[in-house]
Structure formats: structure tokens, C-alpha cells
Write a structure and sequence with these properties.
The chain is 1% helix and 23% strand. With 435 residues, the protein is mainly β. Strands 9-11-13-15-16-18-20-22-24-26-28-30-32 form a 13-stranded parallel β-sheet, with no helix packed on it. Strands 17-19-21-23-25-27 form a 6-stranded parallel β-sheet, with no helix packed on it.
Length: 435
């Protein structure tokens, strides 16, 4: 039975309930110091009590110790370097105490060889985590520095490339600069890489395009590399809120396992590559707040697994493709603030799961299609600032879940349907600036 659910290098640990909750009591006083040489103790868990004092030095005699969890107590001590010599130690949680001073290692090459989980967060440690620490953590599976943990600074440590078992590496929010080390090419088990809010330079992923990554979350200030298309096992590509510019590489269409593609809030330009519409597993596409242009391809109707399609705040032009009606699983359709023209296709009425329909701030004309009556799951209907004409549909009053109806600044005419009064969930209604 494993001793962990999630494994973090220096961040917050969510250990199993048997380790982190079952032992929450109100025990107080100092830790005992009576362990003898050759002790058979394998697990020592006092998590979530009111224990004070120091971490007893005699624990180094417990050579079979696998779990040491004294997190969430009142211990007042410096970092116990000697714990790294325990040959069987797999779980070490010292979080949320009053530990202080710098974090140091003994410099031995045999430290923490079996360690899976290390949590030093929410203490009063000073300075930065020594880079030498990483070369010992051969068995760690997940490294995630938290905001309350000691920070890394300088270049990304090349020694991370020796952690052949690591599956998730999150270095976000640290004081790291420079390029991704070439040694990362050795991280053959890596599935999740997060490098947000640090200052990378050079070509993204130049050295790691053969790693079986599942998720990438970066905040770089360089263009998107076409080499990302080599990461054939990638599930999630999250590059939003950056300064990325240029076109979306068509090579992203090679990522057949991709579920989430988030590129919003950048400066990307040019058309949306048709190759993206061949990603049959894609269910979350967010390209909003860029400078993308050109018409929407009819081929987007091929992505039948779409749940969320957000293309608002771009420069997309032409009519709305009727093939959108093929996306039967769609929950969100956001096309607002573009340059779309023509009528709203009646096929949108096929989207029975649709909850958010934002078509505002375009140049749409003609009447709202009567097929809107089929959108029984709809919560938000925003059609404002277009050139729509005709009457407000009576059937809108039958869509009981509607919370926001915004249809101002059009050429609508006639009376306001009395059925609107049936919308007990309605919070916002704007029909101003019409006829």
C-alpha cells in the first residue's frame, strides 16, 4: 500500500487520510528521545497535534523508519540534515511548524535515496533551497514548490535531469532564469511540466521534444515553437496570459491526444490552423483575446468532443459556420467581439447542452433563429451590439434556467414577450437601444 497520494518536492503535500488526518488529536509536550539503536520503528506520525520542542536526534537510530510525519505542530528547530541518512525513509513531512534557519545537506551521495514525499512548507526557513538537494532525490515522483515554501533562484538546476522517476515537475513562481537544461531530455517519465511565471529564454522545449509529456504550463515571453508538435502524448497545452506572438503552429495538429489547448490573452495572429480541427479528443479550446483573423472553417464541426469553444476578442470574419450544430456536447460557445457577419445559423439549436452563448459585438444580421427555443440548458444569451432584427422570441420565457439575456443595441422591434416574466432565475435583462 503506497504511503502517498501526491508527491511534492517542496510544496504542499496531500498525503492519504491514514497519514494526515487520522492522527489529528490534541497531544502536547515534547517529543520523546528514547529510541534505541536498532529500533524496529517504521512509521512515526504525530501530524496535527500541539507537540513542541525539537526533532529528537535519536530518530537517526531508527534505520527502518519509512514514514516521519510531524507536520502541523509547534516544533522549534533547525533543518535536521541527519534525516537524510535514514536508508528507508519514504515520507518526510515537517510542514507547518516553527522550523527556522537555512536548509542544508550533508553532501553525501547516499541521502534520501528512497524518498517519495518531502514537505518543508509553511515554516520559517531562510535562504534558498540548495541545488545540491536535487541530486539526491532519485525516487521523488512529483516536485512542486509552493508559495509558502523556500524558493529556488538562479538557473534551473541541471541536476534535476538525474531524477529519472519524476513524473511531475512544477517550478512555477521561483526566481529562475535562463534556458531549459539539456539534461531534461533524460526525464523520460515526465508527464507534467509547469514553468509559469519565470523568465525563460531561448526556444521552448528545444531539448525535450521526445519526453512523453502530458501537460505543459508555461509563461514564457518567446514565440510558440513548432517543435511542440513532436510531443505526441501531450494531453494539455496551457500557454495563456503571455506575450506570445506570431501564428499558431500548424504542427499542433499532430497532438492527437490533446484535450485542453489554452492560448488566450496573447498576441497571436493569422488564421486558426485547419489542422486543429483534426484533434478528435480536443474538448477545451480557448483562443480568445488574441489577434487571430480570417473566417472560421467549416471543419471545426469535426471536433465532436468539444465542451468549451472560446474564440472571442479576435478579428475573425465571415459567417458563423452552420457545422457548429454538430458539436452536440458543447457547453460554452463564445464568439463575441469579432467581425462575424450574416445570420445566426439555425443549427445552433442542436446544441441542447449549451449553457453560454456569447455572440455580442459582431455584425450579425437577420432574425434570431426560432431554433433557440431548443436550447433548454441555456443560462447566458448575449446578442448585444449586432444588427439583428425581428421580434424577441416568445419561447425564451420557457428556458427556465436563463440568468442573463443581453440583446441591446440591435434593430429588434415589437413588444417584449410577457413570457419573460416566467424566468425566475433571471438576473440581468438588457433590451435597450432597439426599436
Amino acid at each position: 500500500m503506497p504511503y502517498w497520494h501526491r508527491i511534492y518536492g517542496f510544496g504542499i503535500i496531500n498525503a492519504s487520510e491514514s497519514l494526515s488526518r487520522r492522527y489529528n488529536n490534541n497531544l502536547c509536550g515534547n517529543l520523546p528521545t528514547t529510541f534505541s539503536i536498532g529500533s524496529a520503528l517504521q512509521s512515526f506520525n504525530l501530524h496535527g497535534n500541539k507537540v513542541q520542542g525539537t526533532i529528537p536526534l535519536f530518530l537517526e537510530n531508527c534505520q527502518r523508519l519509512e514514514v516521519l510525519d510531524v507536520g502541523d505542530n509547534l516544533l522549534n528547530d533547525t533543518f535536521p540534515m541527519w534525516l537524510g541518512t535514514l536508508p528507508e525513509l519514504r515520507v518526510l513531512s515537517l510542514r507547518s511548524n516553527k522550523l527556522h534557519g537555512p536548509i542544508r545537506t550533508l553532501g553525501s551521495g547516499t541521502m534520501y535515496l528512497e524518498l517519495r514525499m518531502l514537505d518543508l512548507s509553511s515554516n520559517a526557513f531562510t535562504g534558498n533551497v540548495p541545488m545540491s538537494m536535487f541530486q539526491h532525490l532519485k525516487s521523488v515522483r512529483k516536485i512542486d514548490p509552493s508559495k509558502k515554501a523556500p524558493r529556488l533562484e538562479g538557473h534551473i538546476p541541471r541536476s534535476l535531469g538525474s531524477l529519472s522517476s519524476v513524473e511531475s515537475l512544477d517550478l512555477s513562481g521561483n526566481h529562475l532564469v535562463g534556458e531549459i537544461p539539456a539534461q531534461f531530455a533524460s526525464l523520460t517519465a515526465l508527464e507534467v511540466l509547469s514553468l509559469s511565471y519565470i523568465h525563460l529564454k531561448g526556444c521552448i522545449l528545444k531539448e525535450i521534444n521526445f519526453i512523453p509529456l502530458r501537460t505543459i504550463h508555461m509563461k514564457p515571453s518567446v514565440p510558440i515553437s513548432s517543435e511542440l508538435g513532436n510531443l505526441k502524448n501531450l494531453n494539455d497545452l496551457l500557454l495563456h496570459n503571455n506575450q506570445l506572438s506570431g501564428p499558431i503552429p500548424s504542427e499542433l495538429g499532430n497532438l492527437k491526444s490533446l484535450n485542453h489547448l489554452l492560448l488566450h490573452y496573447n498576441h497571436l495572429s493569422g488564421p486558426i490552423p485547419n489542422e486543429l480541427w483534426n484533434l478528435k479528443n480536443l474538448n477545451y479550446l480557448v483562443l480568445s483575446n488574441n489577434k487571430l483573423s480570417g473566417p472560421n472553417s467549416s471543419e471545426l464541426g469535426n471536433v465532436k468532443n468539444f465542451n468549451h469553444l472560446k474564440l472571442s476578442d479576435n478579428q475573425l470574419s465571415g459567417p458563423i459556420p452552420s457545422e457548429l450544430g454538430n458539436l452536440k456536447n458543447l457547453n460554452d460557445l463564445l464568439l463575441s467581439n469579432n467581425q462575424l457577419i450574416g445570420s445566426i445559423p439555425s443549427s445552433i439549436g442542436n446544441l441542447r447542452n449549451l449553457q453560454y452563448l456569447f455572440l455580442d459585438d459582431n455584425n450579425l444580421t437577420e432574425e434570431s433563429p426560432s431554433s433557440f427555443c431548443n436550447l433548454t440548458s441555456l443560462k447566458f444569451l448575449h446578442l448585444l451590439r449586432n444588427n439583428l432584427k425581428g421580434k424577441i422570441l416568445q419561447c425564451l420565457g420557457n428556458i427556465s434556467g436563463l440568468q442573463s439575456v443581453m440583446m441591446s443595441h440591435n434593430n429588434l422591434s415589437g413588444e417584449i414577450p410577457l413570457s419573460i416574466c416566467n424566468l425566475t432565475s433571471l438576473q440581468s435583462l438588457d433590451l435597450g437601444r432597439n426599436n
